[in-house]
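ligand=6-O-phosphono-beta-D-glucopyranose
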Amino acid sequence: MEVIVVTIEKLSNGFEYILVQNSSAVAKIALQGAHLFHYCKTNEEPLLWLSDISYYEQGKAIRGGIPICWPWFGFHKDKTLPQHGFARTSIWKFVSSDEPDAKTSSVIFRLTHSDETLKMWNHKFDLELKITINDSLKLELKTTNLDEGEFTITQALHTYFAVSDISEVSINGLNKKPYLDALTLKQEIQDGDIFFNSEVDRVYQKVDGEVILRDKNREITIMNSCSSSVVVWNPWIEKTKRMSAMREDAYRNMLCIESSNAYDDAVVVKPNSSHTLEAVILSLHKSS
Ligand code: BG6
């Protein structure tokens, strides 16, 4: 008999998450941030990197998985406001789940404006995240403007991938794309595949095709819709020492490829209109 289960689980400190199990995969999604922090296909290694010293505490974003950066990506010019917005540390509502077949489950989460969010970002909104879990992973982040006037968002599905060793991976699909180097604030053009031998923090622009992460034993393909920017980040040695909830050597086994609307790919959402950022992630195990 196939097992399909969607349950609400609780850690001893009260931190709640949804556990999804079907015949293709297991996934865990925290109500804080609608944060997918575990996805593992049956008989494979976890796809997502998750810090083993991560916080599971209200108000502190989980380090790893797929944090939702919204309604702004990166720093806010008002330094009292949180980096990457408030969605990742807000408590979302678990709306529903669906199991169309033994291999597939989908779960829907919702966040709407409150007195607290209006203080940080003075707009009325409905934000919905649908996660579909089967042999692939699909995330659809739908922003609806409930305000009288238009608003602008930047956002990212800040995916942390688990990698065997950062010095052995490459990213394909961004050759010749312009990027903003967040370390120098200069505009550059990508030349060939991306390899890692120092800190990388870049917003790739005009991205219109698949991005492929090549590792020793697997190949991961990321397909984005309604997005033309992709953030690539690895903090490398020195920055990792300053990061919260990360061990000093953590940079070796993680890499972020973020499906985004960032920098000049900001989105204007008109009243009573919606925008959906979508990412589909496929992983293929390579037999050695
Ligand atoms: C990335 C940014 O998206 O997120 C980096 O490009 C940043 O500059 C990283 O350091 C992690 O951010 P945080 O807020 O989760 O520590």
